[in-house]
Amino acid sequence: MAKSAFSKNDIWLAAGVRTPFSKVDGTLSTIDAIALSVPVVKHMIAELHGGKPDFVVWGNVVPSLTWSNIAREILMDAGVDPAVPAFSTVMACSTSMAGVIEAAGMIDGVSRNLALVGGVDSLSQVQLGLGTSLSNWMRQFQSARSLGEKLSHAFDLKLQDVRLFIPAVSNRTTGKSMGEHTEITAKEWNIGRAEQDQIALQSHQHAIAAWEHGFFDDLVIPFGDLRRDTIPRKDTSLEKLAKLPPAFDRISGKGTLTAGNSSPLTDGASSIWVASEAGLAKLPPTLPRVKLIDWEIASVDFRVEGLLMAPPYAIPRLLARHSLTYADIHLWEIHEAFAAQVLAHIKALESTEFIKTKAGVAASFGAFPRDRLNPNGGSVALGHPFGATGARILSQAVKQLAGMPSGQRAIVSICADGGQGTVALLESA
Fold it and tell me: Angle of helix 339-349 relative to helix 193-212, nearest 10 degrees?
């Protein structure tokens, strides 16, 4: 799937803010998705000094029965002008990046010039549900008009109907978790434990360095007493990572994915601006901004291909459309769902056969520049609140790229459950 019908240089991204990210059942565990999002939205709206966005797109992956359009609920709680339309979106880990693509397609340069986009998830606030049979019984029981009808209906309840629905981080079609699928990919692509741990170590080292150098100071706002991400570990090492047991394949003796080289379940919210030239003029001139040049969405049959392997299909198509090679991309931001998945993507991108037979692109793009990958840390170290990750990665890329010379380019890539992925091409002004 190629980009929407906006013309070159019409769409800009300006860096947004996010909450600190915290591991599941940690510092943010008592805060639901709406409450996590409200301070982020308030901060973004305050940047407009009395103005307002033309519309809002907000993403959320973990479902809740207490809301259907979380975007609208957040705006109401944040005190935003109720005349601002808001809708929710979802595409697993690509959710808020998909929201950016949706917003870019809606901006027309006339009546729609500025969109606030973001996403959130609280993996600590997962609502359990009733099984379908029990839900139906409960609804019918409540609608009974008399005590006799209720008692009669009570005897209709069967023990096997009394089941709870517990949401899981797994694919509905296969029943396998993301980690179980990625273990398969790691074995198919011959991805070893040591190289996974090396990616994880670099992610933590880069994240810690970025925090210490102030890179995140204007990208992360305080949430209560929490001032920074709780997940990056300054004291981690290859030796410590090597001691961790396999997390998803504990039986075969060949499992390589661990808690250390996989992204943790995380709580947090993030945001970003999407604008036309006119919309950009409403934002503070100090905000980092870059051009959204193009995008690509790919989807593969995950019953045959790797569940998280769609981006290597999308990236060559996107680059070929602009006659670019890997060396022409000065910044690579690849979502680290798992270190093994990142390494599998790189191996696929360096395989001429894969690019030709799978991605359908007859071109050579050169060696992948690993030294340009995730310079400020990735999801393994920073965390991965599903709905928030897209806006987090894009804002991070916008700030990094905006500080580079004019004409420099970035690729931002996110894999998603369901065998899908989103990729964006950015350029500094």
Answer: 110
Residue 323's CATH number: 3.40.47.10
pLDDT in tens, 222-251: 999 999 999 999 999 999 999 999 999 999
204 is catalytic: no
Cα–Cα distances in angstroms (integers) from residue 175 to residues 64, 179, 181, 253, in the given order = 21, 12, 10, 22
- pLDDT tops 90 at residue 152: no
Catalytic residue, from 330, 335, 345, 384: name it.
384
Mean pLDDT (the chain) is: 94
Look up residue 244 and give its amino acid.
Answer: L
Q: Which domain holds residue 204?
A: 178-214+293-427
- Give, as one character, the DSSP assignment of residue 159: G
pLDDT reported for residue 1: 57
The answer to whether the predicted template modeling score (pTM) of the entire model surpasses 0.85 is yes
Contact 315, 423 (CB under 8 A): yes
| 415 catalytic per annotation | yes
Percentage of the chain exceeding pLDDT 70: 98
Q: Is pLDDT of 151 > 80?
A: no
- Residue 61 and residue 121 in contact, taking contact as beta carbons nearer than 8 Å: yes
Instruction: Select which of 93, 181, 206, 335 is catalytic.
Output: 93
With respect to residue 238, please indicate whether it lies within any of the assigned structural domains. no
In a domain, 374, yes or no: yes
Distances (CA, A) of 153 to 43, 138, 140, 146, 408: 52, 10, 8, 11, 68
Residue 93 annotated to the active site: yes
Residue 408 lies in a domain: yes
- Does the structure show a pLDDT above 80 at 24? yes
Q: What is the number of structural domains in the chain?
A: 1
Please say whether the beta carbons of 59 and 96 come within 8 A.
Answer: yes
